[in-house]
Amino acid sequence: METLILGIDPGSRVTGFGLINYSGGSYELLDAGIWKSAEEDSADRLRHILQSATAFIRLHKPDAMAIEAPFYGKNIQSTLKLGRAQGVVIAAALQLDIPVFEYAPRRVKQAITGNGNAGKEQVAAMLPILLKNTISADLPTDATDAIAVSLCHAFGLRKGTVANSSPANWASFIKNNPGRVGRL
Question: Largest CB tally within 10 Å, which of 100, 139, 140, 168?
Fold first, then answer.
């Protein structure tokens, strides 16, 4: 069965995306790149990310979205900005009924390189091997990170380790837990 997986590496100024087709144990890169906003106002940058994600999802109709979870750094402002960017992409997917799965950066690196502490360069170097050289060498690291997230999800599908009620999959959570969701 074919599964289109949209991988996202969220960022407040640059958000990477990578769309793969997973079918019968093989992986094909369909599209990858970045959504970049030159806007200075943070709300305008978020609007750009939301509009870009929504248009991409409507065009390609992925079966699932895999997104990299924000890491917790020393700068709380940076972490908050990253979380907002992640939130608008998740909102775009959920608005269009696309299930969302969240992966920690270490898990993605472990899945792609075998080392949870691998650098961006190591992750990018593994992608042509995993995708049988169908990847452009000049992709920005935000895009290669997004491709890695989509492959991480595909590997989970192959192994049967993707949970249907992923905490990031709110639509599924609500459906499977009606008693735990309050009414307004």
Answer: 100
Tell me the per-residue pLDDT of 8-38, one tens digit each, with 9 for 90 and over: 999 989 999 999 999 988 899 999 999 998 8
Domain harbouring 116, CATH code = 3.30.420.10
On whether residue 184 sits in a domain, the answer given is: no
Our answer to whether residue 97 is catalytic in this structure is no
Is 102 assigned a catalytic role? Answer: no
DSSP state of 117: T
3-state helix, strand, coil in the chain (%, to 5): 50, 20, 30
Question: What's the structural domain count of the chain?
Answer: 1
Q: Give the distance, in angstroms, between the CA of residue 41 and the centroid of all CA atoms in the same chain.
A: 24
> Which residue range forms the structural domain that includes residue 110?
2-177
Catalytic residue among 41, 63, 142, 145: 142
Catalytic residue among 2, 9, 97, 145: 9
**In percent, how much of the chain has pLDDT > 90?**
66
User: Is 138 among the catalytic positions?
Assistant: no
Question: Is the residue at 75 inside a domain?
Answer: yes
